[in-house]
Fold this sequence. Notes:
12 helices, four-stranded mixed β-sheet, Alpha-D-Glucose-1,6-Bisphosphate, Chain A, domain 3
Amino acid sequence: TASHNPVGDNGVKIVDADGGMMSQAWEPFSDALANAPTPDALLQLVLQFAKDEGITLGGAHSAQVLLARDTRPTGEYLLDVATKGISAIVGSVALDMGILTTPQLHWMVRNKNRGLKASEADYFTQITESFRHLLELTPDDKGIDELNEKLIVDGANGIGGLKLEQIKPNLARLDILVRNSGKEGEGILNERCGADFVQKEKVLPLGFGPNDVGVRCASFDGDADRLVYFHVTSPSKTSVDLVDGDKILSLFVLFIREQLDIINGKDNKGLLPTRFGVVQTAYANGASTEFLKNLGLEVVFTSTGVKYLHKKALEYDIGVYFEANGHGTVLFNDDFVSRLESLTARLSEAAGELFMACAKAFCSFF
């Protein structure tokens, strides 16, 4: 994939064994590998790196490499080359996972290495079930009205639009309309559409117009790992009211903070003390930084680039980062998840005991 770049571009994204991005420690090796001048130089690089890292070659350990591509025409060629390269390594097997979004492949690698289900169907199930559980948290007095149910998504004529078409029937209480979906003849990948275009130009993507005033709209990029929201401001204008990564981050933070306050209280000394951190770069909107600090949150800065943001966010129980372009995520530390699951089990058991006590008391009246 080449993400938000034109359809004629293509490249490679490497997913580490934990489902995250490739370790920064391996970047010098990958750069040298890509720029090796001769086959012999390439071989020597591999042998030296294996020696330095203590990697045993010769088929002593088996390995699976999951491969996927987006909808770019050159993807098939790159997939074929990658498959041949992997197959040339003794003990390695290339598994073609098909045409996927970048987040899907990250999820599959992570689950595969944890011994969990890792098919695309499993991915869709987890997404839809998680969304259903999230909606169950919506207070009765804050239900979704007809207008809020509607969402128009600009799929950038890429893989994100195609996958959203597959999953949208299972997303309850959302009326999703996909434009620039990637279907043949609808448009060209990332051409005057997609998250990068909308975020930078702050204008409507192709296929959007006056009839969309007042309706929630969103844009993916070409491989669906960026997301921004926007509103059409006026029937006579092409400009948009943009909800970029800084604003999306703030919404995530408000929701998570609200849930933590219920468990821990405002002083964070309750049932699940949590180190909650927000990671930004110097390019973040200054107003968003001030807003987050005024909430009493720990806000730290890193160098520009998702690889730096992601690494820092991993240091927290819950770490959140987003770039303005819509590239970001929420990370939950494994230890925190374990503590949360343990707390849930204890509370469920206590609730069960309380129910039994009440039932016995009730029965004693008869």
